[in-house]
């Protein structure tokens, strides 16, 4: 079992029993989603925004316009922290204090660089697309050079990380189990609904098989 090394930066202090540094488990949480939250400093202010990402090995790819202030601020800092979180359930206890949620979350720390080469930029964008929906890139028209030139792609190398997972039920005070109060878990999940074709599609263009496959797997 390969683990990320522990340091003051990534060590989990609160709820250590829910923490893991296992690389495979962390990658599994990353691969289950495609939206991360990136934290950065701009003009002396702390800002956090959601971004689409793609993972390839220990590399995370982000993209935006060449003028994207977040990506440029991260490149200037040469390091970043990203968070990915999946909400899996509401944990409803017998008292307000013990309400909680079931979740899987990962926090990444790493160094950044700008992807310069056109072929590498396109490969990174394919990675981001595949993170969202597999096998979609080849069904699209090729990118124009002007589009590629306007796109800023940033590569983050994961240097260390940690994850926290809660996947258990209610944890009430011992005396509260005798109360006539309902307690339990409401499972939550993100689901796909049936694809809706664009109204301006040409006639006889069917929904691609890989899109229907995604729907069937996630409905």
UniProtKB/TrEMBL annotation:
Cite the EC number. Answer: 1.-.-.-
Q: Which UniProt keywords apply?
A: Oxidoreductase
UniProt key word Lyase: no
Q: Which Pfam families match?
A: Pyridox_ox_2
Work out whether the entry's keyword set contains Oxidoreductase: yes
Q: Which InterPro entries match?
A: Pyridox_Oxase-rel (IPR024747), Split_barrel_FMN-bd (IPR012349)
GO molecular function annotation: oxidoreductase activity
Please identify the protein, giving its name as recorded. Answer: Pyridoxamine 5'-phosphate oxidase family protein
Annotated organism of origin: Pseudotenacibaculum haliotis
